[in-house]
């Protein structure tokens, strides 16, 4: 395993790394997880180092896995609420004595710590698709230390890494794994596309047979779809899109049904930024809910996946979420959550050393 070439790099998107580099990160994560299970924490790896975590949105898993990961590696994770500092803002979006230009914030934090992690999507950038990713890119441009994407409006690269590690653990690899990323109903429209986009990018990059299922009007970004087609060709897997919910389950080894916003929700030129209309469109598809009957149509050893939090009773029934063991298909949701810790420790070890 070649682990050189990572130090000092940003992790804004999975596409920033080659498939081989992603495989290396997964191998390091597996090794750290194995050792964690034996009580070996490697608190010398990032001793005295600081990760600044800037959350424009709420979080349970991301905040706690980064924070616990830094503690286990001997460093410290520092939580920053953008409303309690001078909110980092791009040029042209500044408000006197309320915001601070991103270029200044990035350079100040670079003088004090060892990496900057940022979560920003949706409301803080008024659903301008690509707006929060631009914010992260501006941080990366001015920062002398790695910038990590804890979810923006395009990518959730650490969730995706945890997801594919879960698939690897379950099936021993990626070739021949039929993986379905599906839309599911939620009463909330406030859900970015980052999770499904990262999931299909990694799944195609690693050679799985990928199905993307969603109703009309919930298309993912065209450049992401094109990249998935290229990855599938290069890796020898496959990629197809269907508008039929049930089709995505039939015979699948891994199904990942979760809600995301309709195209309509985003600002022009992507959509028309209409929340009421978006809600009406969402409500047409209440039947896109994962039930045990649907799971029974998957492969016998299938796993149900979700990044969490899930909207119980809407996206999925309780009996599916809670079937974490026993015969037949099972829910792998807590494995995915746990794997956030291990993949992030792997990335931080490689990038922040
Ligand atoms: N899956 C995920 O990113 O969870 P949080 O929103 O709780 O961080």
Describe the structure.
With 353 residues, the protein is α/β, with parallel strands linked by helices. The chain folds into two domains: 14-154 and 339-351, Aspartate/ornithine carbamoyltransferase (Rossmann fold, 3-Layer(aba) Sandwich), CATH 3.40.50; 159-338, 3-Layer(aba) Sandwich (Rossmann fold), CATH 3.40.50.1370. Helices cover 38% and strands 14% of the residues. The protein has twelve helices and twelve strands. It has helices at 19-37, 61-72, 102-110, 131-142, 157-171, 194-205, 222-235, 245-249, 275-283, 292-295, 318-321, 333-351; strands at residues 50-55, 76-80, 87-89, 99-101, 115-119, 147-149, 178-183, 209-213, 238-242, 254-258, 303-304, 330-331. Helix 5 (157-171) crosses helix 6. The model has no long low-confidence stretch (mean pLDDT 97). Bound molecules: phosphoric acid mono(formamide)ester (CP). The site of phosphoric acid mono(formamide)ester has 8 residues, from helix 2.
């Amino acid at each position: 395993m070649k682990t050189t070439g990572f130090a000092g790099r940003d992790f804004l998107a999975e596409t920033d790394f080659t498939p081989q580099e992603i495989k290396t990160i997964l191998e390091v994560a597996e090794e750290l997880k194995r050792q964690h299970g034996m009580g070996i924490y490697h608190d010398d790896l990032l001793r005295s180092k600081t990760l600044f975590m800037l959350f424009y949105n709420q979080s349970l898993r991301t905040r706690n896995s980064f924070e616990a990961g830094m503690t286990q590696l001997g460093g410290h994770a520092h939580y920053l609420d953008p409303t309690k500092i001078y909110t980092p803002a791009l040029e042209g979006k500044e408000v006197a004595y309320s915001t601070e230009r991103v270029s200044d914030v990035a350079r100040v934090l670079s003088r004090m710590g060892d990496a900057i992690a940022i979560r920003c999507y949706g409301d803080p950038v008024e659903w301008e698709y690509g707006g929060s990713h631009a914010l992260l890119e501006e941080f990366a441009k001015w920062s002398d230390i790695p910038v990590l994407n804890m979810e923006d409006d395009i990518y959730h690269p650490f969730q995706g890494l945890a997801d594919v590690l879960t698939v690897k653990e379950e099936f021993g690899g990626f070739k021949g794994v039929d993986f379905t990323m599906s839309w599911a109903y939620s009463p909330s429209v406030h859900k970015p596309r980052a999770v499904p986009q990262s999931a299909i990018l990694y799944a195609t990059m690693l050679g799985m047979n990928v199905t993307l299922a969603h109703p009309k009007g919930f298309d993912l970004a065209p450049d992401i779809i094109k990249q998935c087609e290229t990855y599938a060709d290069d890796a020898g897997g496959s990629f197809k899109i269907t508008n039929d919910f049930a089709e995505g389950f039939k015979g699948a080894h891994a199904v990942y049904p979760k809600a995301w916003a309709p195209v309509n929700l985003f600002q022009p030129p992507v959509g028309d930024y209409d929340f009421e209309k978006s809600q009406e469109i969402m409500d047409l598809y209440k039947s896109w809910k994962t039930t045990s009957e649907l799971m029974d149509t998957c492969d016998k050893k299938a796993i149900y996946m979700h990044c969490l939090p899930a909207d119980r009773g809407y996206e999925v029934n309780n009996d599916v979420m809670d079937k974490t063991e026993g015969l037949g298909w099972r829910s792998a949701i807590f494995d995915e959550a746990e794997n956030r810790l291990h993949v992030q420790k792997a990335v931080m070890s490689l990038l922040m050393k």
